[in-house]
TrEMBL record:
Residues 31-201 form the Metallo-beta-lactamase domain. Coiled coil: none annotated. This is MBL fold metallo-hydrolase. The lineage of its organism: Bacteria, Pseudomonadati, Pseudomonadota, Alphaproteobacteria, Sphingomonadales. Gene3D superfamilies: Ribonuclease Z/Hydroxyacylglutathione hydrolase-like, Winged helix-like DNA-binding domain superfamily/Winged helix DNA-binding domain. Pfam families: Lactamase_B, WHD_BLACT. PANTHER family: ENDORIBONUCLEASE LACTB2. InterPro entries: LACTB2_WH, Metallo-B-lactamas, RibonucZ/Hydroxyglut_hydro, Sec-metab_biosynth-thioest, WH-like_DNA-bd_sf.
Length: 284
C-alpha cells in the first residue's frame, strides 16, 4: 500500500476525502480509514476510534461544513466509537445498521462497540442523501451479522467497510460472523458494477470483481482444505488450524481459528461435517 500519514485529509475524487486514523495493528493494517462524502455538506463514514487526534483531524477536514449524517458500516471498536463525540460536536445523527446482541459460544468479542447507538437504523436499499450525493445501504452480512456497505452512485464507488478490504480477507468469527452469509454477500457484490471500492483498511480496490472473485476462490480453497484434512480422520479445531496456517503471525492465530470454526459451522449446516465433543469429522 502506498503509505500516507495519519490525520491528513486526502481527496480521492471530487466527492470523497479519506482520513487515516492512528490505530495501526495486526488487525487494522495501517489503521481505520474514515471518509468524508460530499462538498457543501458531508457525511462521515466510519469515524473510527474515539481518539482525540483523529477527531481533531476529522473536524479540520469537515472545516465548518454541515455534517448531514455520521454513517457506520458496522459497530466494531475501530469503526464506530468516534460517532458519539462527533455527533455531540456536530449535532449530526448517527445512521447505520441495527445493534446486535451476541450470546452463545464465542459471544460478543472484544472488537464489539457495546455503546453503539444509531439515531436511525438503515435497512438494505435505504438512502442517506445530501447536496449532490447519495449513499445507498447494501446489506452484506458475514463479517458481522449487521454489516452494511454503501454505494455512492454519483462516483461509481462502494464503501466496502470490512466486508472487502484492500489488504487481507475479513475475519469471520461466530456466532455473529457467518461464513455462509459472508459468501452470499460476496456473490451479491459480484453482480454489481461498482467502479472502485474504498475499504475500511488497506489499498483502494481498483478492480473490484477480480478481487471479490479471488476472495470467493480463497474461501472455497479453505473449505476444501478442511474437508481433505477431515478425510484422513477426525480432528480437533486447534490441530486443523495449526496445519492450515503454518507460519502465520502468532497475533493472528486467534482470528484464523475463528474463521476455520466459521467454515466448520457452515459445513455442518450443509450436512457435510459433524462435531463430536472437541473433534470434527466428515458426516456419515
Amino acid at each position: 500500500m502506498a503509505q500516507h500519514p495519519t490525520g491528513v485529509a486526502m481527496r480521492l475524487d471530487p466527492l470523497v476525502t479519506r482520513i487515516l486514523a492512528p490505530n495501526a495493528s495486526a488487525y487494522t493494517y495501517t489503521g481505520t480509514q474514515s471518509y468524508l462524502v460530499g462538498d457543501t455538506d458531508v457525511a462521515v463514514i466510519d469515524p473510527g476510534p474515539d481518539d482525540p487526534a483523529h477527531l481533531a483531524a476529522l473536524t479540520a477536514a469537515i472545516d465548518g461544513r454541515t455534517v448531514t449524517a455520521i454513517v457506520v458500516t458496522h459497530h466494531h471498536r475501530d469503526h464506530s466509537p468516534a460517532t458519539r463525540p462527533l455527533a455531540a460536536a456536530t449535532g449530526a445523527p448517527i445512521v447505520g445498521p441495527a445493534p446486535v446482541s451476541v450470546s452463545g459460544e464465542g459471544g460478543a468479542d472484544a472488537a464489539f462497540d457495546a455503546n453503539y447507538a444509531p439515531d436511525r437504523v438503515l435497512a438494505d436499499g435505504e438512502d442517506v442523501v445530501g447536496s449532490g450525493w447519495t449513499l445507498t445501504a447494501l446489506a452484506t452480512p458475514g463479517h458481522t451479522s449487521n454489516h452494511l456497505c454503501f454505494a455512492l452512485p454519483e462516483s461509481g464507488v462502494l464503501f466496502s467497510g470490512d466486508h472487502v478490504m484492500g489488504w487481507a480477507t475479513s475475519v469471520v468469527s461466530p456466532p455473529d460472523g457467518d461464513m455462509g452469509a459472508y459468501m452470499s454477500s460476496l456473490e451479491r457484490l459480484m453482480e454489481r458494477d461498482d467502479r472502485v471500492y474504498y475499504p475500511g483498511h488497506g489499498d483502494i480496490v481498483e478492480n473490484p470483481r477480480r478481487l471479490v472473485r479471488g476472495m470467493l476462490g480463497h474461501r472455497k480453497q479453505r473449505e476444501g482444505q478442511i474437508l481433505r484434512l477431515l478425510g484422513h480422520g477426525e480432528s480437533p479445531l486447534e490441530t486443523m488450524v495449526a496445519r492450515m496456517y503454518a507460519g502465520l503471525d502468532p497475533r493472528l492465530m486467534r482470528a484464523a481459528e475463528r474463521s476455520v470454526l466459521a467454515h466448520l459451522y457452515d459445513l455442518r449446516g450443509r450436512g457435510m461435517v459433524a462435531e463430536e465433543g472437541e473433534t470434527w469429522r466428515i458426516a456419515a
